Amino acid sequence: MRRSLGLAAMAVLVSPALAWAADGATGGWVGPFAVIAAGIGMAVAAGLCGLGQGRAIASAVDAMGRQPGAAARIQTAMIIGLALIESLAIYVLVVAIILLFVQPIK
Amino acid sequence: MDIIEHPPIVRLPGIPDHVTYTWLVMLILVGLAVVGSRRPELVPRGLQNFLEVVLEQFITLIDDVIGPDGRRYLPLIATLGLFVLVGNLVSLVPGFAGPTANLNTTAACALVVFVSYHWIGVRTQGVGAYLNHFSGPMPWSLGMIPIKLLMIPIETISHLARPLSLSLRLFGNMTGGHILLAIMFFLMGLDGLLGWALSGSAVGIVLGGLGSLITAVFTIGFIYPLKILVSFLQAFIFVMLTMLYIAGAIEHAEHGEHHAVPV
Asked: Model's pTM, two decimal places?
């Protein structure tokens, strides 16, 4: 049962590549996998980035609640931290854009 | 990228779009500066008042982050910040391209930051003291030499990663937003829901009409304000990181406190 499920998953993953290869027009078989990789990579990056930013914001808001006087400084630090966390997801976005539009590997 | 994103409406033949719109941003900024400072008054009014408020915001930020020594770098920081901000905002005008949504522009800005903060560091501390920064904050002694040797490649890589992350962050944010907007407009438009509504089928008129209305309200009411917020935020972050790098470069080693400067 599990094996047939695995085979079915493989078939779903591989079939666009086979269809593409059967086309033969654009050549390589990497293209469809690149699309899948871009999607999965962006999903993982966005999800984990959201998790990390959520933790950062939670503790920043916690700190602002404890010390409203320091709210401005905490907010600045929080925004910088958020930008640095976000840039990790942005790297994945750039890689996804390269995979989708520049297509260095066909 | 032309597959999903429509090229800008106004294009100069033979010149890349981001260069054209960089010139537009330069025109806007120089024009504002010239008109605003043509007849400077002691009690500012109108445009002069507005520009002074903007620059005072930059000065407040610089005083907070770098300290009183930092006002010398106001021209560099404010120019970069205003250029990035206006570049981000120009790209939101329908039919215009964004200079900051192109990696060449952001990489140019990041390289300017990279070169100038090293130059500022060498100028304020001298070559030897500045290079000493690269071996970490520990004092020189026999036991520390292996650790300091280990620190040198790490610090070098972290310094080299700064322009990379600075340029990719701005570029990725702007381009991602543009792709999102392009997809939303594509969904709304004649090839998408609106076209379905106009195609004549009864289901299409109801679902397509409702759908295009909802997408339009969502795009104009949520995504566009979000993009404006992101434009300001990214410009702020660019300026903030520039100031942190400069502050890290001019800070003296013997202070003992070593600020953790982010990449």
From this structure: 0.81
